[in-house]
Amino acid sequence: MSDDKLFGQEPDQKRGIVLIGMPGSGKSTVGVLLAKALSRPFIDTDLIIQAVQGMRLQDLINSKGLDAFLAIEETCIAGIQVGEAVVSTGGSVPLRERSMHFLKNEGIAVHLELPLDELRRRITNMDSRGIALAPGQSFDELYDERMPLYKKYADITVNCAGLDHEGGVAAVQAALSAYSLR
Q: Is 136 left (phi over 0), alpha (psi -120 to 50) or beta?
């Protein structure tokens, strides 16, 4: 028996797992827990951007503007080595087609989906969180803009409504198992 079968992974499953979704959907927290559960590395693209730019996301958006931020994000995404990692992306990643094509080539895109009212309850720091909003854009408008993009790029959509982070991890693992059986 090969090592791959011993650990419950077929060789074709050794791709990255890319979490996409709205700010507040749990990508970072679920991502860390999922990476631990699957014994995989974890990458948070927002943290990479902050490290490369030497500033918080919100400060970057405020000082350079949305378009410049999205260009920086796209460049950082193109430079990551996904391998078998679980990747937590910023909510704005699907706004750049090149970023999503790169990520989907490297892994399975998993959309963590939550209803708008639950996202609003989770996000308490809208002004400092680093959400890539266009000037004058509301969170509701952002949701309406991005949801079709998440659906377009997702290989798997996991409804996380009412789930805590551990429940989200379990739901993602179940969805990945079902996806690999197709």
A: left
What tens digit of pLDDT does each residue of 48-63 get? 999 999 999 989 998 9
Residues in the chain, total: 182
Domains and CATH numbers, the chain: 22-180 (3.40.50.300)
Give me the residues of the chain with pLDDT under 70, please: 1-14, 126-129, 181-182
The rounded Cα 133 to chain-centroid distance in angstroms is: 17
Between the two ends of the chain, the Cα-to-Cα distance in Å is: 23
Name the residue with tokens 């902050």. 50
CA neighbor of 52 nearest in space, from 74, 35, 25, 36: 74
Spatial CB neighbours of 153, under 8 Å, sequence gap ≥ 6: 20, 94, 100, 104, 109, 111
111: enclosing H helix or E strand: strand 107-113
